[in-house]
Write a structure and sequence with these properties.
The chain is 39% helix and 15% strand. It is α/β, with parallel strands linked by helices. It has a four-stranded mixed β-sheet with strand order 1-4-2-3, with helices on both faces.
């Protein structure tokens, strides 16, 4: 959000789509799970640093962390949904998605200090990051599987799968968490 538009489509930006989906998701949770309190990292078009997103969840002792995004590809024919959990990069493609999402820290002041020298463009830094396995990997994976099932069965979207990758926004959370790529903004139909 704010100064960081995220991935760009022909008609829209990731920051706008992700915010709209997050607000709608929060409304659904509030309506259908009345005992659940929804805490947003943002409700308006502002930039929230990656570490602050996790900090918000940690400070309120959240039970679950959901990070909503739009994916992008170099070719407009790629489409579908993916959900990520914190873990090892199983492929170069997963590493590239993590690099794209983690590049948001370049918009933050003193990012090298806040992320202990982590550089989102350096492959070797992801080796170190991947060593911090999510203590909640099993629960995160179960949620990710359910999200993908809902995309596939309920709304008939292409299910590209559940993957592991080193996302900074998940690395700092102290609860089960997922990063949802709701579709490819670079694909006209997904957009």
């Amino acid at each position: 959000g704010g100064k960081h538009p995220g991935a760009l489509g022909k008609l829209s930006t990731e920051k706008d789509i992700a915010l709209a989906i997050a607000l709608k998701t929060g409304e659904y949770i509030t309506k259908y799970l009345p005992g659940v309190e929804v805490v947003y990292t943002r409700r308006t078009d502002v930039f929230i640093e990656l570490y602050k997103r996790a900090q918000i969840a940690n400070d309120c002792k959240a039970n679950l962390f959901i990070s909503i995004h739009c994916n992008a590809a170099k070719t407009p024919t790629v489409y579908g949904t993916e959900t990520y959990v914190m873990g090892l990069h199983k492929s170069d493609a997963n590493l590239e998605v993590a690099k794209l999402e983690n590049a948001a820290i370049l918009n933050e002041e003193n990012f090298a200090d806040m992320y202990e020298g982590f550089d989102p463009n350096m492959d070797e830094d992801y080796i170190t990051l991947s060593m911090f396995q999510d203590a909640f990997l099993e629960q995160s994976t179960m949620l990710a599987d359910e999200i993908q099932r809902q995309f596939r069965e309920r709304v008939k979207r292409k299910d590209r799968g559940v993957f592991q990758a080193g996302f900074l926004v998940l690395y700092r959370t102290t609860m089960p968490g997922v990063l949802v790529e709701t579709g490819f903004i670079t694909n006209p139909e997904d957009e």
